[in-house]
Amino acid sequence: MATRSELVEAIVERYRSGSRSDKRLILDEFVAVTGYHRKHAIRVLRQRASKIPGNKRHSLRYGGDVREALVVLWEASERLCSKRLRPLIPVLLPALERHGRLELGRAPRQAADNEPGDDRSAFGGGTCCGFAAASAGEQE
Question: Which domain holds residue 88?
Fold first, then answer.
């Protein structure tokens, strides 16, 4: 038996161009051979021409050292979601460095020093839930 995808390629044009009674016979045969549920077989045979798979490989924005620093920050914040973690980063980052739990190299430090909310900033800034993030020096 050919693979299911090869079988679909062989039958799909005949199914599309066939009359209603032809489609019923083709579908019965296809279901018997593939073991698909009838409704799924209809959807498979009615699919549009397959898209040519593009290069979906995304380049990494930051290196491993930045990722490791973000994981340490995330763990220290008790695994907060990114939306709530971003405003805490300016407070957590210096505290973790002071206590020796995190040592940033040159690249992560540059990523942290970018403008808050800037797309290049790995360590965030910006707002959470409509409130501006407090800088590391501000205290209430």
Answer: 64-132
